Every structure is written in structure tokens, then in C-alpha cells.
Amino acid sequence: MTGIHAALAVHPDSGHGAAARVAGTVAARLRRAVDRLDLLVANSVEESRALMARAGGGGLDALVVLGGDGAVHQGVQFCAGTPVALGIVPSGTGNDFARALGVPDDPLAAVDEVVAALRAGARHRMDLGQVDGTWFATVLCAGFDALVSERANRLRWPAGPRRYDLAIIAELARFRARPVTLTTETTRLRLDATLVAVGNTAWYGGGIPICPRADATDGLFDLTVVGEVGRADLVAMLPKLRTGRHLDHPAVRTLRAASVCFDGDRLPVYADGERMGVMPLEARCVAGALTVLTTHRMRNVGRV
What we know:
Number of helices: 8
Structural class: alpha+beta
Radius of gyration: 19 Å
Number of domains: 2
Helix content: 25-40%
Mean pLDDT: 87
Largest sheet: 7 strands, antiparallel
CATH class of the largest domain: Mainly Beta
Strand content: 25-35%
Shape: globular
CATH architecture of the largest domain: Sandwich
């Protein structure tokens, strides 16, 4: 394709400096597939948003994010509801959205995939979730898993999925189910919940398929609701989370819904690893809200 104006958003600290180390090579490879490439280097969320907004004023066709899930989350905010296509070159510790798109973990292999998508015009539409005007691409969670995310975000060691494992162990010590009311367009549940996960895509926490049947093109969330379980049962369930076999547990219920309202005792709610607020709140699925650059076919992804 010709006439493509793209921007590369780099978050140098992502992956403990991994993004900074490969940024030059990533930019050089992208330049082979576009006519103009703007380089946006941001060291904070505020700076990232400002640079993206400035670049958008120049008529972007694509935004490529080199960074982790937090950086990608900012790219989603910019691209959602616009014609600007989002490409991902993962260099963080979780990379759950990249996993959903079938993007390789290796940044150089990933940028080659983005280049191939740019050259082939491989743009696909997918759904996003939205809470109070903020978009999310992967999983929204409340309960035990949100408390784990909150603790994991405070940890500086270890890196990657092991950080979530350590946070899980710490939260188990203070674990208890909490009363939650969930209301969808067809169902109302009142229960003592261990965790509630609302999946636009399947994975969170660095590769945990909490909503393994989620389809980001069907206009619906997949909900995984874990009712009250004892600490021993929860410990026994945790290894199954990484294989998707937790759905077989008798305390687990799954639902599908276009929107869900949460109400509880002001429990924190996280999505894409970012704090979205506290209960009560509502999440809704917005069909086809994001265009992504990928040569891989997510389940039923619609080509633009």
C-alpha cells in the first residue's frame, strides 16, 4: 500500500527497558512499509496521550504501540471509535492483548507481523468494552482478581506472570468472598462472589485464560463468575486457571451479555490491568469499536 501515515508510540521503560533497546530497529522496519512515520516517545500516561492527540491531528492511518499492556491501553483509548488502526509490538510483562491478536512475544517478530499487515491491508474490526467513557480491550475483573491486580501493580519484583503469582499468595492470606449484585440484560445475580471476570478477550494476568470462550467479534462479553469458595478450594482452583479448566468447578458460572452492572461494597474494578474505579459501575460491549492490524484471524474477526 502507498500513502500510509503511521506513528510509533514508544514507552521506553516497558519491559524494564526492553522497548528502548529495540525501538530503533522497530522504527526502521516500519519505515519500509509506510510513507511517513512519526516517532512518539512518552515517559508518562499524560505525555503519551498528548503526543497521540498531536499526531492524530496530522491524519494518522495507523498507530503502532511498542510497550506493555499499559501502553497498549493508551493506544486503545486513542484509536477506539476512529478509523486509525492499532498495531502492537509487545515489550511488557503481561502482553495479554497482543496474545489475543496472535502477535508473537518477540518484538522483532511482532513488528514484522505489523509490517506484513500494513502491506497486505490486513485490518480487522473487533469489539471493546467501555466503562464511564474509558475503553478496555481484554478483561474487566472485580473481587479477588481485582485485588490481586491492585497488589501486583504495587510490586516491583518479580517481573512477568510471577508478579501476579506472588500477589495471589499475598491476597490469599486475607481472602474472603464479598457480596456482589450482577445485572445483565437478561439476568440478575446476588451472591457472595470470589471473583467476577468480564471478558472481551480471553486472557488477563499475563496469560491466564479466565474467559476462555470469549469472542471479541460477537458483540457480547463472556462472564466468568466464581461464587463463594473456601480458601482451600480457591488454592486448588488456581492452577486450573492457567489451563481454562476452572470452568468445570461447581462454584463457577458463565454468562454472556452485552452489558453488566456491578454493585457491591465499593470493591475495586480493574480492566486491561488498569484501575477503572470501584463498584457500583456498568460495563458495556461496543461492537466493532476498534480496528487492529494483524495477519492472524482472531475468532470471527471481521476484515475491514
